[in-house]
Amino acid sequence: MGIELASLSKSYDGQNWTLKNINVQIKSGEFFTIVGPSGCGKSTLLRMIAGLISISDGTLKIDDQDVTNLPPQERSLSMVFQNYALFPFLDVKSNVAFGLKARKMPAAQLEQRVAHALELVGLSELKARKPRELSGGQRQRVALARAIASDTKICLMDEPLSNLDAQLRSKMRSEIRELQQNLGITLIYVTHDQVEAMTMADRIMVLHAHEVQQIGTPSEIYQHPANSFVAQFFGTPRMNLLSVHYSTKNQRHLQVDPLLDYVLPMDIEEGDYFVGVRPNALEIHATAQASNAAIKNIEYLGTQSIIHALLDNQEEVRITTAQNNTFSLGERIQIRATAAYFVFDNTGRAIFFNKGDGEDGRTNYKQTVTNAL
Amino acid sequence: MNKNITGPNFQRLGQLFVLILLALFILIPFLLGFWTSLLPTADISKGSLWSSHISLDNYYTAITQTPIIRYLFNSLVISFFTMAAQLLFCSMSAYAFVFLEFKGRNTLFYVFLATMMLPFEAEVIPNFVTVRNMGLLNHYAVMIIPFLTSAFGTFMLRQSFLQIPGELKEASEIEGLSHWRFYASVVMPYSRISLFTLAAYSFLASWNQYLWPMLTTFSDDFRPVQDGLRQLQSQESFNNWGMIQASAAIVVIPTLIVLFIGQHYFKSGLNEGAVK
């Protein structure tokens, strides 16, 4: 069951757009993630697809059928919520059976469906318990079982893992992914966590400032971010954005400072740019004679450390390094460029990337985003 | 060091002492009333509380010679229907105030609330005129119909319904539950502790009504207990205090039952809680 969003928009007051012109085609059986910072409208978008919030403009098609104005129960989908949405007065089994009962399914078939769903999430033994007697992870599994039991081909999930602790979250990530694969359902998954989006999704939609920033596979989004917002949103620690001015007399040298210098393979127009550099694409030289930065903070992570340094032009950079325990606070260092970098224009739009592997060139990304910064 | 250990214990003893004292203050009239209900009236009149004639005679007299059982029945009927109606109508109006979106919802709610501020005594005369014109005087209906709903009950249930997570409503919408079914299968069970509390409250409020039934009932066929008790006192020139005391004790029994059940549910409600 494919889902098509055609210039879907939402406005609550008729003046300001909460969501503007969302276009995407979600393929049948796809794991589609909507990601963005809080307040970007991702939950609103999900609820519009579910039918819980009305659509102001545009059309929504499920399986080529226009469902823009249909009530939720006629869209044949299921939903899993952040706070599980379990009924505290019903036991696990009745919670899972809730939707089926509401749809007046014959008892025998209902029993069988519920039992199967509980088995899939590994909760068969706890079916007589009340939700309050379960842990957070088990509660979310009940919610998953309810979605599975409904046997719909589309499932919507609204930040289902954000109430769980980190360890459980990574376990549930793979469980959800596995379930989705085995059941062959189309899953639309909303999250604010870029790691969840990257690790689980077939495709990611990045929402920010009421608009789609980019839609693509995790690797497309990481390797070819459409703009500086997307570039900084994905990857920890965040990508460094260093402002530079370029004029043709610089002869293809994009200079952050005299020691941190990027050589462009081609000429670009004169103007202000941002050089985007991932923290792992900068080198630190402590013993070099000339220095251009001072270490402000060191985060020791075991296999690597994150160095926060202040360039002499007062810009802060984050660098990850495997050289542990070799630096000290306040130490003068030399920060040097490697071959991998991105170039964004002064509106934040990506115009250029250089992965340092010979595949250099201008981005062919056509999407224009006005307020990416 | 030593002080630190004994300090809290002393405090605790002090607390217990105060609590016991207060409990005695509350319990003594109650126990005294129960005790006198077992004494012959002659002894009560003499003021001697230590009598050798402890018996249930007073209860026997009360039941056989006064309409106290009829009063009890009247009160049970009135209180039960008032309670049931309030549960139904208060929950339905509270549902509308929480889950239905309509113009002027909040304004209407505040108007609703404002009626809570009116003392009942101020409404007595207009209400009396109304029920007289409707021809309801001296009937069960006169003690039930004006109390079919209450602003307090609606207010209380609204607060309780507001606690229901929005996700439960959304999950129900996805399954296509209508407002009626959502009300019946989610809202009511979710808020059952508040409903029990309201039930106990409205039952007791109705049971303890005095002024209104006094004005509107004229015969033992419809008179509720509180007015019935008063009736026992004034009917005879010589007051049989032992019997009156026994009747009062009988009248208290349903109240105690309601409180006992209510407390049980209230306790279980404390560890119910929402799934968060």
Question: Secondary-structure map with pairings?
Answer:
The complex is a heterodimer of chains A (373) and B (276).
Chain A: E1 3-10, E2 19-26, E3 31-35, H1 42-50, E4 57-62, E5 65-66, E6 78-80, H2 92-102, H3 107-120, H4 136-149, E7 154-158, H5 166-183, E8 186-191, H6 194-200, E9 203-208, E10 211-216, H7 218-223, H8 228-233, E11 240-246, E12 253-257, E13 260-263, E14 271-277, E15 282-285, E16 293-300, E17 305-311, E18 316-321, E19 332-337, E20 341-345, E21 350-354, E22 361-362
Parallel strand pairs in A: 3-8, 3-9, 6-7, 7-8
Antiparallel strand pairs in A: 1-2, 1-4, 4-5, 9-10, 11-14, 12-13, 14-20, 15-19, 16-17, 16-19, 17-18, 20-21, 21-22
Helix pairs in contact in A: 2-3, 2-4, 3-4
Chain B: H1 2-36, H2 41-46, H3 57-65, H4 68-99, H5 105-117, H6 120-133, H7 140-144, H8 151-162, H9 166-174, H10 179-190, H11 192-207, H12 211-216, H13 225-235, H14 241-270
Helix pairs in contact in B: 3-14, 4-8, 4-10, 4-11, 4-13, 8-11, 11-14, 13-14
Keywords (chain A): ATP-binding, Cell membrane, Membrane, Nucleotide-binding, Translocase, Transport
Organism (chain A): Liquorilactobacillus satsumensis DSM 16230 = JCM 12392
Pfam family, one (chain A): ABC_tran
Structure description:
The complex is a heterodimer of chains A (373) and B (276). Chain A has 373 residues and is of the alpha+beta class. Chain A has two domains: 3-223, 3-Layer(aba) Sandwich (Rossmann fold); 236-361, OB fold (Dihydrolipoamide Acetyltransferase, E2P), CATH 2.40.50.140. Helices cover 23% and strands 32% of the residues of chain A. Chain A has eight helices and 22 strands. In chain A, the strands form five sheets. A six-stranded mixed sheet of chain A has the order 6-7-8-3-9-10, with helices on both faces. In chain A, strands 11-14-20-21-22 form a five-stranded antiparallel sheet. Chain A has a five-stranded antiparallel sheet with strand order 15-19-16-17-18, with no helix packed on it. In chain A, strand 17 (305-311) and strand 18 (316-321) form a beta hairpin. In chain A, helix 2 crosses helix 3, helix 2 (92-102) runs parallel beside helix 4 and helix 3 (107-120) crosses helix 4 (136-149). Chain A is elongated and about 80 Å long. Chain B is mainly alpha-helical and 276 residues long. Chain B has two domains: 10-55, no CATH class; 67-270, Orthogonal Bundle (MetI-like fold), CATH 1.10.3720.10. Chain B is built from 14 helices and no strands. Chain B has helices at residues 2-36, 41-46, 57-65, 68-99, 105-117, 120-133, 140-144, 151-162, 166-174, 179-190, 192-207, 211-216, 225-235, 241-270. Chain A: GO terms for molecular function: ABC-type transporter activity; ATP binding; ATP hydrolysis activity. Chain A: This is ABC transporter ATP-binding protein. Chain A: Keywords: ATP-binding, Cell membrane, Membrane, Nucleotide-binding, Translocase, Transport. Chain A: It comes from Liquorilactobacillus satsumensis DSM 16230 = JCM 12392.
